[in-house]
Amino acid sequence: MPMQFLRNSRDMYGQETLQGVAWDLIPWFAGAAAAFIVVHALYMALWAPRLKKSAGLATASGND
Length: 64
Fold this sequence. Notes:
By secondary structure, the protein is an alpha+beta fold. 47% of the residues lie in helices and 17% in strands.
């Protein structure tokens, strides 16, 4: 049986209505959010300081 991303049903008039989103998708979105946070943290720690220095935007205090 294929995974249903959206749950539908029929109302009393016979029209198809949206009931909600499948709970099976929560781990996918949590994993995507965690991956985004990790990649962003790596970018800020490794590449962003180099780009600042190469562009000449480093401050004299060095607190950035």
